Every structure is written in C-alpha cells, then in structure tokens.
Amino acid sequence: MNRELADMRRVYKANDLAEANAGPCPFALFNRWMAEAAKTETLDPNAMTLATVDAAGQPKARIVLLKGFSKELGWVFYTNYTSDKGEELKNNPRCSLLFWWELLERQVRVEGYVQKLSEEESDHYYTSRPRESQLGAWVSEQSQVITGREALNEREAIITEQYAGIDILPRPPHWGGYQVIPTSIEFWQGQPSRLHDRLRFKLNTEDQQWTRERLSP
Ligand SMILES: Cc1cc2nc3c(=O)[nH]c(=O)nc-3n(C[C@H](O)[C@H](O)[C@H](O)COP(=O)(O)O)c2cc1C
Questions:
Q1: 62 in contact with ligand 1, CB cutoff 6 A
Q2: Domain boundary assignment for the chain
Q3: Ligand 1 pocket check: which of 52, 58, 63, 92 to mutate, most ligand atoms within 8 Å of Cβ?
Q4: Considering the entire predicted model, what is its pTM?
Q5: What is the mean pLDDT of the chain?
Q6: What is the mean pLDDT of residues 33-54?
C-alpha cells in the first residue's frame, strides 16, 4: 500500500448545511442533494448501501442502486425477492440506507421499513431494462451457493435458448421492487476540524409531521 491507513484523511470543506438552506422538507432536500450528486459524482451516484437484519440479529449490508424516489414512494430499488436480503426483509422489513457522495462530502442515512412495490411498477421497470438484464433476472438464483462459474454459464445458455425470439421477457415472479418508507433521514455535510453539520428529520407517527434537529458531529 502506498498510503498508510493511519495517514489517510482530508479536510472537508466543500459545502455547509445550514437550517435555512436545508428547509423543512427532507424529501425536497434529498431531491436536491441527489440531483447535485448526479452532476458531480463519478460513476454510480445512485449506489446506496442497504442494511438489513437477519433472523439471528446479524446486520447485513450490501450495495443496491436507487431506481426511483418520491415523497409518495420513498426510495425504490429492485432485487430478487428470494435472495438473502429478500428473506431478511420478509422476516423483518426494517432496514437502513446509506449514501456517500465523496466529492460533495455528503452522507445521507435513511432508516425505515420496506414494502414490496406494486406488480405494475415492477413490470414497468423490468420491461424498461436491457434484454440481457431481463435474462439475468431469470438466470440468477441470487444468493444461492453454486458449484462454479460454469453452472451460471450453463443456466444462462438454457434460459437464453428458452426465450429465443421473444423480445420482451415476462418478469420473473421472484424479482421486483421494494420501496423504503422512511422514519428518520439524516443529512451529513463534512466541515473542517471534524465539526461536521448533521441535520436529522424524524417522523412523528402521531401527526405524520417531520421534525428537524441538529446533531453534534
Ligand atoms: C454498484 C453495485 C450495484 C448493485 N446493484 C444491485 C441492485 O440494484 N440490486 C441487487 O439485487 N443487487 C445489486 N448489487 C449486488 C448486491 O450488492 C449483492 O451482491 C446482491 O444483491 C446479493 O445480496 P444478498 O445476498 O445480501 O441478497 C449491486 C452491487 C454493486 C457493487
């Protein structure tokens, strides 16, 4: 390694996050930050870490891509419902999302729970994907142990043959979207001297209003 871990650090100073700029609505603020990340960040500004909890209480994290966002739907991603994450979310729908946009020096943490997206929305997104991705959803028994790469290649050949001549594949029943419905959303903006800005929005379940509070870094 040409840089020692202990010496890897930098001063965060790209932006700040004042209450006046943040405004009262976390959805509007996320929309703004996501749009800025789409302009400034490199290859995958919509990559987010999804954390779930398994039946033994073990937290599990992996990256998925954000494929839709609105106040009504929340954060939308697509996956295999029978994957490890799918099983974990079936048993415990609580989850957490994390975005890190390094050039903007921003982190967003979302806590909440998932609901399956409607069949129509999943169909709509599935048919919009490139054909190879549509095939991939049929080929991969996501999270299952397989004997080797050859097993995957063989399955790909069989499925490709099966759907030869069919332009738009049917969506596999085990594949679709989830929407993450938030209960807490925290915006973190890096600042010098490690005195970062942190604003957290929490949902009051009684009146469904969001309150904003500043956290110590
Ligand atoms: C940049 C990136 C994007 C990814 N996007 C997705 C995605 O949108 N959906 C998905 O199921 N897996 C995606 N993956 C793969 C997951 O990280 C993970 O390996 C897979 O979903 C299996 O997770 P599980 O075994 O915990 O269910 C992505 C991985 C990376 C690195």
A1: yes
A2: 9-120+178-214
A3: 63
A4: 0.97
A5: 96
A6: 97
